[in-house]
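Why predict the complex rather than its parts? Because the way molecules touch one another can change local conformation, and only a joint prediction can capture that. The input here totals 1712 residues.
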Amino acid sequence: MRRSGFFQDLLSTLFERRPWRGTQAPDAPLETLCEDLLGGRGEISGMRIGAAILDAYRDLDADGRRRFFAYLTEDMDLDADAVEAAAQAYRIDRNAKTLQTLADAAEPRRQELLRRLNRLPGATAALVRMREDLLAELRAEPSFTRTDLDFAHLFSSWFNRGFLVLRRIDWTSPAHILEKIIAYEAVHQINDWDDLRRRLHPADRRCFAFFHPAMPDEPLVFVEVALTDAIPNSIQAVLSEDREPIDVGKATTAVFYSISNCQTGLKGISFGNSLIKQVVQDLSAELRNLSTFVTLSPVPGFTKWLGGLESPEAKAVGEAVTAALAGDTGQLAEVDDTLRRLAADYFLKSKRDDGRPIDPVARFHLGNGAILHAIHARADLSPAGLKRGAGLMVNYLYDGDRVEPNHESFAKDGAVVASSQVEALLRG
Amino acid sequence: MRRSGFFQDLLSTLFERRPWRGTQAPDAPLETLCEDLLGGRGEISGMRIGAAILDAYRDLDADGRRRFFAYLTEDMDLDADAVEAAAQAYRIDRNAKTLQTLADAAEPRRQELLRRLNRLPGATAALVRMREDLLAELRAEPSFTRTDLDFAHLFSSWFNRGFLVLRRIDWTSPAHILEKIIAYEAVHQINDWDDLRRRLHPADRRCFAFFHPAMPDEPLVFVEVALTDAIPNSIQAVLSEDREPIDVGKATTAVFYSISNCQTGLKGISFGNSLIKQVVQDLSAELRNLSTFVTLSPVPGFTKWLGGLESPEAKAVGEAVTAALAGDTGQLAEVDDTLRRLAADYFLKSKRDDGRPIDPVARFHLGNGAILHAIHARADLSPAGLKRGAGLMVNYLYDGDRVEPNHESFAKDGAVVASSQVEALLRG
Amino acid sequence: MRRSGFFQDLLSTLFERRPWRGTQAPDAPLETLCEDLLGGRGEISGMRIGAAILDAYRDLDADGRRRFFAYLTEDMDLDADAVEAAAQAYRIDRNAKTLQTLADAAEPRRQELLRRLNRLPGATAALVRMREDLLAELRAEPSFTRTDLDFAHLFSSWFNRGFLVLRRIDWTSPAHILEKIIAYEAVHQINDWDDLRRRLHPADRRCFAFFHPAMPDEPLVFVEVALTDAIPNSIQAVLSEDREPIDVGKATTAVFYSISNCQTGLKGISFGNSLIKQVVQDLSAELRNLSTFVTLSPVPGFTKWLGGLESPEAKAVGEAVTAALAGDTGQLAEVDDTLRRLAADYFLKSKRDDGRPIDPVARFHLGNGAILHAIHARADLSPAGLKRGAGLMVNYLYDGDRVEPNHESFAKDGAVVASSQVEALLRG
Amino acid sequence: MRRSGFFQDLLSTLFERRPWRGTQAPDAPLETLCEDLLGGRGEISGMRIGAAILDAYRDLDADGRRRFFAYLTEDMDLDADAVEAAAQAYRIDRNAKTLQTLADAAEPRRQELLRRLNRLPGATAALVRMREDLLAELRAEPSFTRTDLDFAHLFSSWFNRGFLVLRRIDWTSPAHILEKIIAYEAVHQINDWDDLRRRLHPADRRCFAFFHPAMPDEPLVFVEVALTDAIPNSIQAVLSEDREPIDVGKATTAVFYSISNCQTGLKGISFGNSLIKQVVQDLSAELRNLSTFVTLSPVPGFTKWLGGLESPEAKAVGEAVTAALAGDTGQLAEVDDTLRRLAADYFLKSKRDDGRPIDPVARFHLGNGAILHAIHARADLSPAGLKRGAGLMVNYLYDGDRVEPNHESFAKDGAVVASSQVEALLRG
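Output of the joint prediction:
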């Protein structure tokens, strides 16, 4: 039983606030509006001008956006000479005034622009979309990365873990949130509302998402969990349409089988680690018999890595995958052991230049302090699973007391902690 | 009727989250913990170390706090040489890497420390209290102002207007919020719960507060409003215990008769202006007959200013106030006109060095775009009202279309816009 | 902005209460359990026994249910002799004791049984389903109608208008409620979630439902509303997939185009009238320009009535409908005028034995005080619309001041109030 | 973490609904209005007429109310002849029609009147107040008891346990609820808001209340609970202002030290038993170490019973109480053993004519299945505690598995189950 509803009400106001759309936009070029907003006509005009900027931005085409980003990058940059002078002044006399001058000089003007835009109700989501546009231009125009640094800096402050809100997502959740879960699921596609229902509704299924109070309609990241009585060895078993739900009170194992980041515009602002930890904590408190927290994860870099090998084994596997994609999994069944042995190699011995594992999912979970617990062949026979990972899936195990030392040793030198059964594959 | 409760639920999680208290603190000096937190042992250890820092800080005595602030100010400062070098490098080659280096160098390390502390649930309120402690030391140790700059910078980002939530406070509000309203009321003291009830419960009374989602138990600023059928000329009339509530549907005037900032630790982060504007907007939408939005405000700087005058009039007023404080308001009644004329002088002709009015409340409302509408003598006969303002109160009028031009002209050159009746006093 | 969340929280407890399922059922025949429950072993055992009864009932097959209903009807009936004796005693000495004896005697024992079952959390919904089962048996076993009287009597008390809660249903509503809207829509079928979205999400569409606090997962009745700038003359226009939403602020007309009762087990407990009135009131308060409240209603009894006519016109219409059902609406277009004239006859001149209109939808809206405003041909070309109503739809108009007199004159003698344009059809 | 907020929202609508006040009342005598309401002018006029009746009733003086109750009792009674005839008809031919006729005849017309009044928003609370007025007249006019039977019958249906909502009351609860807790506390007076805070705010204190969705502003019954590490032997210890809260996680004992019914108008509709059981269930689920659920209860009938004794012991006790009331508790200290022995007599051997204990609190808890666990002298030294119970308090223990057999044996023959230490007092 909750203690009070007052706190829940707070957010309703956010939701009910009139958004910035619909404001009549002052009829001035975007750049002029930006200068006006920074020019200190104060908060009153500020709200109006800010709304005009966001309106105008929204109506830009791709060329217009590129011009705007160039403007942010070059015209709204800091003045390196001024920084140098301010740094000298501060070195000579370290006081609040010289420090303030230095802080002002060292911050690109676009940062304050973004901060002022963010004062508008609903602006946070608009700025996240703006960064999504920006990220799409970085390859073509790397100089925009300088502007991206400022977005990333501010978002990291605004989307501070302390401000995020964890919510359970289930079949009683609002439809407009659920349709986003369908859209954002990045690992194992959700086909339609019936498929979604199967993932959310059974008593032995859970889904959790982080939200930010200023973007209550948008999940930031979500995780899908299956409560089971054993560590699963394939996604087919987890998602089977005919399976019988188990008695949740007897579940021993929570399987994190899908983690999806929802907001491209929040790239690099990491939520997944916090989400897993919070969910582990909450599920532990709710279900006393849970003792094992484990993922069932894809191996997205495997096939590409395999393609770089020249061994007959690698070739055999490649052919088996091709056959499986064409509908015949017979060959694949014959190379199970080979595949698992190759995968052990892939995770434990093959490294990037920086000494970290090649697999991005591995880097994520090992970086969080999990261990590589088991490797399963023919564990994801979907086209995507075959193409990227040759049907392989793995379990990363989050083992309470060992998470911190694992994390630290991985952070230090990229050491991959694996279970003895995985280690044994190397010697197999 | 609201559309959905999902959004209100988001906050409940914030509220229900285990706070950082009660964490077992690692047994290490505070400075070591701070270095550890910045040292990148990652988010896992980070939460534990952060909790230890906040725990340890809470247990410090005054000396300990000063040592900690000195540590933040000196040891966690930026390195001016590094900034200079980075600025030079960026001038020569403006790219993301050189910019990132410069940004890192130019930010005192304490900023990142505060940001990481803020990841803990409940930490925002703890940091606001920490700054309250810091502010109390600034007079004795001005160098700490450098640290305060970083607090102010971060708070201004975290307490961005776009993140704030407006809530009506009334007699159905939670008691623990209401006891804070009693405690924080800074203008016209609330004596007890019965007094509070008289301010909140009648249909023609309103109270609104801003909250931040990460501090849902703490109002940031609140305003008390009386709905009336005329602009009031004394606080006695507004707060009278026997008055009859009016029919709200017929109210023409919303009187903002008390605005209180609640968090000393958020000094300089301005909420009052936004609050007034939002409340004007909301009340307008709710009550169609409302057309006048006006304050009934104290004149806190008047008596001090008067004390600096040497005219016989000033002396007579001074004596009348002394008598009134002793319980005899007869003399005060005789100097009504004098007082109002002097007040017109005080507001319109006497200025600070920067050309702004002496009165802080005047600077606030005129800066927001209000005009000085009327001056009332014997309008606040409480001891505080007599001591600070010789019993004077004034109305500042927020007049929709004129707010923006008023604000801009005041922002430009400190021009005080007053009604013709106030202007006339000067010529009286 | 709402005043408080406390009240909303109340319901959460209902929702969170452990339901009666899962209770270990005492191993006794259903009839014994019922006697035990009435036997006054008090509330403690009562909850356990009640749960056992509901569990046991749920597991019955059709035969078992019929035996149980027979038991309720015969064994749990009142004793007419006892009533007679008690009535005599009360006539002789009218006091509380004799009255209590009479009241006890005159109430079939099954009423108290149902009341005690209803003490269990979640039992109300179970009893509504039980009555649904019962209603299905009435035709085969009319004696069960006596038991149904007691269900109806209690439900009418429990589902008292004063206990119902109106909720807006929109795209932010919980999915498990929305899937029931899809399932329960009885007038214009909702094909899938996309179709539902088109009905709920556009700004100019509304949906409202009544709920009972003890069955928060089950809508009782809901109405779908289109906000328009004119009275619509066909459902195709209202539900068109390509239509552009209109500016809600400018909407003049609220069109109730579908009203569906959701709970078969609540048959005869009327909610529709209250729902329409409450929605009219709420929409009026929200949208100031709304001045016309009108339905777009089917004419479900028309085709059957038409089949009883022998005129050449009737025959021509019949053939046109057959052609339209086969995909060719050409003929139908030619009999528009005929159809509308026949419909005027159907509504205004043809009556049931009790003097009321033949059409059930007409009886509902005219009984609520609406007038028959307009008749449209080719207004519903769906198979259902053609089969039941020959493509006809009509508008019933709810005209504020005239609702009460309309209602009373209809209640008195079945007088059908129609607009002059409908009246004119008769003379056409 | 809760699953959804939709359900909580349902109630908000109840709260937001315009109440029946303010409706313009038709200008007709109250009796005429009642006949109109029953006369079937339908729901539309019904709401208006119902509001007029409640308005008119509210404005009645005491004489007017008595006339109205006499009207309900006599004019709105049933017709015994009609009942007799209907019973005969039903005996001869048991069908739905004859049963309906009998049911209609056997129900006093005032029942349907009350049911129709209850359709108005807010009417439930008004009807509860009406019954409160009625109860106050019963002694003077016993015939009104016949009307009271109908109120009681309907309330027992409307306030069915299945419709009630349990809410925790704490320092974050709405002030307007808390002021009612202060007002309604019937056992140990709450002096002011500070006193209330001491009862609600500490982590080792709890308070729970039942609410009905149709009266969300009014608690029906509430219980105050202290979480302790031992069974307390005096209220002074429980309510001491200086006590240190204990660590709730280590609490072994939940002490129900005050249970108050709030609504006089709901007399005879028992909530206390359900409340205790629900709270035991909820606290058990929350706090795993709780194993003892016990009351600390007053002994309100003791002093009066003692006054009827003529033994020297009884006299000595009487004098000690008189001295204690005058401020000197020395004598009382000397009769501790005597008092406890007498109390054992009072509870275990002295009975009412119906064989039940004299003490009403004992009848309540023993009837719920508790046992008399311990008797404490000088356990409530407040004036009320001394006057009613000579300073005695007792613990009733709710012992999970034994509650049901205890309840049944008490229900059967009034057997008082006591602990061996209490039994021993008899032999002392």
